[in-house]
Amino acid sequence: MSSIRWALVVVVLLSGYGGQVLGMERDDPLLAMLMVEKAEFRKTSGHDHFAWEADAWVGYDINKAWFKTDGETSEDRTEEAELQVLYSRALTTNWDFQAGWRGEFRPKPDRNWLAAGFRGLAPYYFDVDVQAFIGDQGRTAARIDAEYDIVFTQRLFLAPEIEVDWYGEDDPERLVGSGLSTVELSMRLRYEIRREIAPYVGVNWWGKLGDTRDLAQAAGNETSDLELVVGLSLWF
What we know:
This protein is mainly beta. The protein is 12% helix and 61% strand. Strands 1-2-3-4-5-6-7-8-10-11-12-13 form a twelve-stranded antiparallel barrel. Strand 9 (150-151) and strand 10 (156-167) form a beta hairpin.
């Protein structure tokens, strides 16, 4: 827990310092937001799962403390859990630079990473999050997440999404191999009752690749699955 405390202290100090010193005006108020992008049940060929993905930030127009979490539970057991504590600085209207700490708590053993990347709106309105990570013992990793909203009406949206993970070295304790590790493809149809509340249904497919797939097979684990999902998105 000490790494989490230090990450919080550094990020909050940076965001607060930036808001007061880096040219910010007095009429730039301190704001906060919580975005639960996914809170969903997944029906699989094996055990059913509950998965979550949420972002929260506090700060000013240019500088913010940003928090990300995602994970998955099955049969009252947490299978995957991750938290990121980041300093976020707006570079343009559409793009932020983010840097800080990423902690993976499940599966065991824990892994800690330095994180840096860019998040924003690419041409043609693709929502993109690109990150690179450096961990202990020289471990490296990268992640790309891209999502797009297809608008049917002012309330009805279809959102395809792709997420790809890459690792620079084998991590056999966590059944992770070097190279492209996992890919996840999904499609969610959501209806915004209000902008802040949106139930959705969809499908989610994930697969392990390369050395990661081989390690999973050797351990007797699944290497891919197609899931039906039903969930809710919330903004506060």
